[in-house]
Amino acid sequence: MKILADENMPYVQQLFGDLGTIETVNGRELTAEQVSDADVLLVRSVTTVNAALLSLNSKLKFVGSATIGTDHIDTELLASRGIPFSNAPGCNATAVGEFAFIAMLELANRFGDNLKTKTVGIVGAGNTGTAVAKCLAAYGVSVLMHDPVIADSDPRDFISLDQLISRCDVISLHVPITKTGEHKTWYLFDETRLKSLKQGTWLLNCCRGEVIDNRALIKVKQQRHDIKVVLDVWEGEPNPMLELIPFVELATPHIAGYSLEGKARGTYMLYQKLMQVLELNTEKSMTSLLPALWSEQMSIDSVPNEKALLQLSRFIYDLRDDDEQFRAMILNHSSKNSRVNCANNNGFDLMRKNHKHRREFSALRVVSTGQSDVNWLSNLGFSRIGL
């Protein structure tokens, strides 16, 4: 059996190596000829799986995408051809939730503010939006949510988008990209909505770049310096608008979900599904893929203030490092290369490919002396040992 896998998908050899021959490929440049003799196709969001890509293949047994979304997959085509498909919903939700939470702490620190005094609006209450809300709730931050797709079937309270914009100091976006229909998210934040943001709003996008009209964002930011923006996703990836980057407080190349745990979880979910399709027993565990919890155990009597919480978070993941590297790799090359060459060869995809250092809060054991004021750290995600 031939397994064709994106070269940036981790742990493929460890999980799928016993099932057949593995060939890794550049997912963004994958061709029909490369797919022609594959039995299993494992992709990420950069690969569009459609009729053109599968035109030369008549033997596919399974297609898997180690992603939350499926907008890059023609699921109707796969169903019509009887090809089982699975994505990995929720695989990187914890990573995205912690990324957004840390980004908010960074903004609060940078501008001498306090996150705990903010009201945070979450647009999209699926796996990632819920993970953000979990972090905020653990810290005691007020949260409002908007999600018309699930509002009728979800017991949580939801408000309209206009209400959320008018009431929230921070807005974090966590919706799939949909181009048509009643709940279209393409350019959900167009120029009109961007202009309607409250004075001093923080706007974070960790879902899909086109949820915000990036050209309109440039125009609005030129007029309103009070709005602070965090972008992990960009319109036109992997070629972000270079002129937008200087207007963004924290800029990263679509790596909010790129924790070691999140990547392993995504690949492992596809392994589990393929084993079901092949009617084989799942003999490997996800925990066997990951390094052990960090040997460093941090003893904490209390977290005296928000700055101390930020320092603890930076011990796990310092978002400023990725922001600095992103700007250096993208902007510093722009004067020497064309925009396309700059993004493709020196920046966006290269940084994503090499992003292998990040862990989640759970990788650190927090050793508590028993004070109740640090119990909430386990709800935030840290592994906790009580003494």
From TrEMBL:
Record's subcellular location: Cytoplasm
Predominant subcellular localization, coarse grouping: cytoplasm
Gene3D superfamilies tied to this protein: 3.30.1370.170, NAD(P)-binding Rossmann-like Domain
Keyword field contains NAD: yes
Pathway(s) it belongs to: Cofactor biosynthesis; pyridoxine 5'-phosphate biosynthesis; pyridoxine 5'-phosphate from D-erythrose 4-phosphate: step 2/5
UniProt catalytic activity: 4-phospho-D-erythronate + NAD(+) = (R)-3-hydroxy-2-oxo-4-phosphooxybutanoate + NADH + H(+)
Sites where the protein binds substrate: 45, 67, 258
Binding of NAD(+), residues: 147, 232, 257
Record key words, sorted: Cytoplasm, NAD, Oxidoreductase, Pyridoxine biosynthesis
UniProt xrefs under HAMAP family: PdxB
Family statement: Belongs to the D-isomer specific 2-hydroxyacid dehydrogenase family. PdxB subfamily.
UniProt name for this protein: Erythronate-4-phosphate dehydrogenase
Encoding gene (name): pdxB
